[in-house]
Amino acid sequence: MVNSQNTAKKVTTKVTARPLEWIISDTVVPYAQALAFMENRAAEIAEGTATECVWLLEHPPTYTAGTSAKSEDLLTPDRFPVFETGRGGQYTYHGPGQRVGYVMLDLKARGPDVRGFVHNLEEWLIQTLAAFNVKGERREDRVGVWVSRPDLGPTREDKIAAIGVRVRKWVTFHGVSLNIDPDLEHFSGIVPCGVSEHGVTSLEDLGHIASSAEVDIAMKRTFEEIFQSAS
After folding, report:
1. One of 190, 193, 218, 226 is an active-site residue; which one?
2. How many whole angstroms from its chain centre is CA 134?
3. pTM (global) more than 0.85
4. Of 23, 89, 177, 192, which cross-links 55 as Cys (Cβ 3.0–4.6 Å)?
5. Could you tell me the mean pLDDT of each successive run of 10 residues in the chain, 231 residues long?
6. Helix, strand or coil for residue 114?
7. How many CB atoms are closer than 10 A to CB 64?
8. Is 30 within 8 Å of 6 (Cβ atoms)?
9. Catalytic annotation on 53?
10. Are 104 and 45 in contact (CB under 8 A)?
11. Is the C-alpha dihedral spanning 212, 173, 29, 191 positive or negative?
12. What pLDDT does residue 95 have?
């Protein structure tokens, strides 16, 4: 359940005849609370007792470690709370100004294709960024969504969105994070996703001002377009 202290709106939509619950939280949600919710909801989806769910939210400043995280990539371990997670990937940062999308879908019903699911998550982020006139791109040698920065150098690329998922009994959880206007200096306490030769950016850093509500609208619309057609 969502803590009653957090303001949340719930909307139910249909994706190819399967009910999908949207939860949109307007205040920061502690990471441990979100993790407990995802674990419980994923188990219920696998059992057939709950609907699929997408949760859009923000966390307080937090570092999380994926299953491939290297201890040396946590540069300032005492700066923010650090959580070990079961998702794939390495270290990442979550905090205010960053929209996190936790995606709990039944791949057994949709088609047991984890690679295809991750591709669709990437496309979700790319199309959301396009709604704000930002060109997000994939890179074969590293995860996440990237933007070219010719204003900062001919080969400069910065990461604007991260992806880290877990699949249990063909049900997905964890998901994506998109930088709207976080404090980018907070990323300096880690080597984000193990990539040190590139930077981190945000919509605000690129000169695009957007509210969380505007990003939520774009994320919801593009998610429905991508995952409905993919189902």
Report:
1. 193
2. 17
3. yes
4. 23
5. 40 53 97 97 97 98 94 95 92 97 97 95 98 96 91 89 96 98 97 82 97 98 86 49
6. helix
7. 26
8. no
9. no
10. yes
11. negative
12. 98
